[in-house]
Design a protein that fits this description.
single chain, 148 residues, alpha+beta, 5 strands, 30% helix, 24% strand
């Protein structure tokens, strides 16, 4: 007997989410909620704290340093873990402070990203702009990995 299955139930869970926005004061909160939902769908909720903190720092950098505040965010499930990219049209690459002023209220964002993620980096985009990215990996290999 034929049954109707709504397409949202019959299709696989998407493995990436891309959004383009003009970042504002409350953007990080909304993007964190989107990331949290995808991490839950991908059974990677144990990475939520690190992803949310690092993503908040990258969005804060857009708000503070990109003149038009336009950016594109990509949240992508990888074979192991998750990768997040934030792209903007500003050619200036951010600099991680090596020894931030202890009395300063800024300058620690990329140090936090480095501390809570497994890998991070940045690269210029051909034609202008840059992408700043990070990856968070699970503490142990996924159950489908060889040798388990």
């Amino acid at each position: 007997m034929n049954e109707y299955f709504p397409s949202v139930l019959a299709s696989p869970v998407p493995t990436r989410h891309r959004l383009t926005l003009t970042a504002g004061e409350h953007s990080a909160r909304h993007i964190r909620r989107i990331a949290r939902g995808h991490l839950e769908d991908w059974d990677l909720q144990h990475l939520t704290d690190a992803v949310e903190l690092a993503l908040t720092e990258l969005i804060a950098n857009v708000v503070r340093h990109v003149p038009d505040r336009r950016c594109e965010v990509l949240i992508q499930k990888r074979e192991s873990g998750v990768r997040v990219e934030v792209r903007d049209d500003d050619n200036r690459l951010p600099r991680a402070a090596t020894a931030p002023d202890p009395t300063s209220e800024s300058g620690r964002g990329l140090l936090l990203v480095a501390a809570v993620t497994d890998r991070w980096g940045m690269s210029p985009v051909p034609g202008g702009g840059k992408t700043v990215w990070f990856e968070c990996l699970p503490d142990e290999p996924p159950p489908s990995a060889p040798g388990r």
